[in-house]
Amino acid sequence: MADTHPLYGPDSSILITGASSGIGAALAVEVARYGGRIALFARREERLHDVAERVAAAGAESLVLAGDVRDPAQVKEAYERMVREHGAPRVAFLNAGVGDSFAIGDFKAHRVRRIFEVNIMGVAHWLEHLLPPMLKKGRGFLVGISSLAAHRGGPMAGAYSASKAALSNLLESLRVEAGPAGVSISTVEPGFVRSELTDKNKFSMPFLMETDVAAALIVDQVAEGRTMIRFPWQMAAFVKLMKHLPMSVYDRMARHIIKGAPESLKSKN
Ligand SMILES: NC(=O)c1ccc[n+]([C@@H]2O[C@H](COP(=O)([O-])OP(=O)(O)OC[C@H]3O[C@@H](n4cnc5c(N)ncnc54)[C@H](OP(=O)(O)O)[C@@H]3O)[C@@H](O)[C@H]2O)c1
Q: Ligand 1 site: residues with CB under 6 angstroms?
């Protein structure tokens, strides 16, 4: 029998974007413990069906929505189908995202555009449909998966850091207005979590967290009403310290990290 929960209970319709792998798939399985109807959105349909089987085994209904967050027409179609079949979502985890890292000599605008199209415009395309009914009803939970990388321009990860800084600011701005209207907006800023995205990294990832542990933490803290969720605490504390370092000290440290190893730091996603 499914566990009971006031937010994710059997009456809830929940959306998860980027549900075909990593944190998104783990979020789906975690919320499925409480029952309810879970819509799974990503491009790889086969993978979504695999996740749907795990969701069913955990005790919830699911709806596979294959689509690309970069395409507003596909997002609109998926949103309308979800509303028809599951009802308007009470909780939406906007998690789809991509990473890329490259040395300055490989800088190309199209690589920056690709990251922003998914990490920022992909979220905006969904928000355009999710916000109006939630604001009208005066209730709803929107959860954006940003990153601790939002806080400083990471060496060789400028496009990713910039996209997540933009996302954290976008969510913060919306949160200020949405709160009094009854809609909760949470920003999630993880450190390193095991996933297909981080499997490609060729550098050591301090305090790497397992995917299911990260998903359980997100699900619980959103339900507690936390609007800023940063983990693991060790990385969050380190990033807080880095954020307040003078530029000259930060630059020296960041240069030391990448010194002599540009090839090994590259991860092409
Ligand atoms: N893992 C970490 O250490 C870490 C840390 C901080 C933040 N994050 C963030 O967490 C989120 C999930 O990442 P992850 O680590 O779980 O990586 P992942 O396993 O690679 O998952 C990324 C998900 O996003 C989906 N996606 C990518 N491009 C898409 C598109 N154009 N349209 C629709 N869906 C798309 C992918 O599905 P398809 O390929 O099937 O479309 C996949 O389901 C991302 O926003 C990432 O930036 C991760």
A: 18-24, 42-44, 47, 68-70, 95-99, 118, 122, 145, 147, 190, 192-193, 195-198
